[in-house]
Amino acid sequence: MPHNTPLKFIIIGASTAGLVSAIALRASGHEVLVLERDEELGGSPSIPTGGVRLPPNGCKILFDWGLEAQIRAHAIIGEGFTVYKYEGTDSGRDYLGTNRWDPELLRESRGDFLQIRHRDLIRILYDTALGKPLKNDSEPQLNGHTPSQPITFEFAAEVVDADFDTCSVTLKSGVVHHGDAIIGADGASGFVRRRLLAEDVAPLLVSGCDDERRGLALYAAIIPKSVAVADEELSKLYEYPQRNMVTFSMGSNRGAQAFLAGEDEDIVFWVYTPDADEDGSWTQVAEKNITDVVGPCDPLIRRLAALAGPATCVQIKNYYELKSWVSKSGNAVVLGEAAHPFPVVSLHTYSVAIEDGAFIGKLFSHSRKSARVREFMSAFEETRKARCLHIDHSEKQYIDVMALPDGPMQATRDAAMRANEAAGRNVMDAADVDLQQMWDDMRMIFGYDPADDADDWWMSWGRLRDAPSASKEGKLTEDIPNESL
Ligand SMILES: Cc1cc2nc3c(=O)[nH]c(=O)nc-3n(C[C@H](O)[C@H](O)[C@H](O)COP(=O)(O)OP(=O)(O)OC[C@H]3O[C@@H](n4cnc5c(N)ncnc54)[C@H](O)[C@@H]3O)c2cc1C
After folding, report:
1. Residue 148 vs residue 38, higher pLDDT
2. What are the residue boundaries of the FAD-binding domain, all occurrences included (predicted)?
3. Based on the domain organization, do 124 and 178 belong to the same domain?
4. How far apart are alpha carbons 255 and 383 in whole angstroms?
5. Residue span of the structural domain in which 157 resides
6. What one-character DSSP code corresponds to residue 49?
């Protein structure tokens, strides 16, 4: 293939990871086809759209792409969180303390802590993928050229088979698509992840590598603002500063979060419960009512559950860790939840999926050679894996800390938080090593820039392996310089 011909990427999945990588790869001058199983963007409209917390490392990437105004128009700025005991006291709620995001930390990381609705974010990414300019009202330039063609989307296009050796995928309809590279952005239970799992172990053993449940399920529901403001208890969530805070409730093997999201300021309500066996998904209504699984709780949680619309139920799991994110053929890779599924509604699911997409797009701004696809896919895995696994570990720690069973450790946690509150400190600022470590971790995580990381790899390794080669005309050709996004 001539070096100035774009590579053709087939991306499976049109959610956060798929859309961001599509935008970034197109901006790097490549041809992109996105295949989505659902008939409509963002899932079925009959399922209530949920909410998302988007920390600085995620939103700053989108801001840098020129999407700040659109994102902010659909978001509430989170200023921190207040922490309560899940069960409350006989007389009402039991307050442990408050944590405010450090303005300096946010300034340093050039982002914000946004609360947005899933479908609004996906719609903004989709519009951008369809060709809305990324920056300064102009298309991003690559090597002096604007991206040659728009991204192609196919909905109701479920991938049911793939041949990584020939780099082709087969849809349920029987249609076959060929490309130079396949990106599996099809989620934690997606096709590409299962296929890589089959490469890890003999295909017949794949069912023996099932993801392990952690004993908690997550119920997610929405309470419309019109309903909430008419309620004595819930209307308090609309008073400043609580309107810009996540309400966090810690129980014994239980937990809950509530926050306002989106321009409509509806309440997003999440309950972590041991009382649900269902292995549900974001695209189906839960079998049980949320009121049946909240258990003993404080008045706020009781009112939220009573007024919540239909809920979804997703189990929190320890997912099987893929040995490799890249197929043996070298031309297929997983990213986002398909590569590193975090516990559901983790703080960083969206931001890290955005990082993945931005990273892969930036990486491929440096080459159009199909012969380098394997190396670039491996570079993605090598560079990104440690960070993603570290974040996964932290996310599990947050859940463990939140849902500590009653006992000595829970008592120590509560005492540390109450002491901080009494001293006027953030609840997470404790002398307690684990809490302080979690807070330091956030600083490291918020400050990350995937474009810099991709360029570091290119400068340290990639460009050195790419000695100029002779073109047919006898002229020396080099890979594309780093100019996109
Ligand atoms: C409809 C929907 C609603 C969600 N709502 C919320 C929410 O409110 N709050 C929250 O915290 N998280 C939500 N999530 C999860 C959240 O989207 C992810 O954790 C995050 O965006 C990063 O995920 P991802 O892009 O890697 O994968 P996902 O978001 O899981 O997306 C995977 C995509 O791949 C598609 N797909 C799967 N298999 C195939 C196949 N064989 N062929 C073609 N396409 C396929 C899926 O339909 C989906 O669009 C939702 C997910 C979905 C799919």
Report:
1. 38
2. 10-196
3. yes
4. 34
5. 8-42+118-210+320-395+449-477
6. P
Higher model confidence: residue 394 or residue 343? 343
- Same domain flag for 233 and 291: yes
In this structure, the answer to whether residues 288 and 370 fall within a common structural domain is no
Are residue 437 and residue 461 in the same domain, yes or no? no
**61, part of any domain:** no
Q: Ligand 1 centroid vs 305 CA: distance in angstroms? A: 25
- Beta strands across the sheet bearing 51-54: 51-54, 114-117, 75-77
pTM above 0.90, yes or no: yes
Query: Which residue's alpha carbon is at the smallest distance from atom 28 of ligand 1?
Result: 187
Alpha helix ranges (H) inside 214-331: 225-228, 299-307
Q: What is the CATH number of the domain that holds 236?
A: 3.30.9
Q: What CATH number is associated with residue 130? A: 3.50.50.60
What pLDDT sits at residue 3?
Answer: 60
In sequence order, which residues have a C-beta less than 8 Å from that of residue 230 and are 6 or more positions away?
A: none
What is the strand order of the sheet 254-261 is part of? 92-100, 80-89, 245-251, 254-261, 266-273, 212-223, 312-318
Substitution candidate for ligand 1 out of 118, 155, 173, 333 with most atoms within 8 A of CB = 118
Same domain (yes/no): 313, 349? no
Inform me whether the pLDDT recorded for 139 exceeds 80. Answer: no
Dump strand ranges (E) for 322-475. Answer: 332-334, 469-470
Domain count, the chain: 2
What is the atom index within ligand 1 of the atom nearest the CA of 43? 1
Separation of 197 CA from ligand 1 center, angstroms?
Answer: 19
Element of type H or E holding 12: strand 8-12
Contact 222, 51 (CB under 8 A): yes
User: Residue 429 and residue 432: Cα distance in Å, rounded?
Assistant: 8
- The end-to-end CA distance of the chain, in Å, is 25
Return the ligand 1 atom nearest residue 35 CA.
Answer: 43
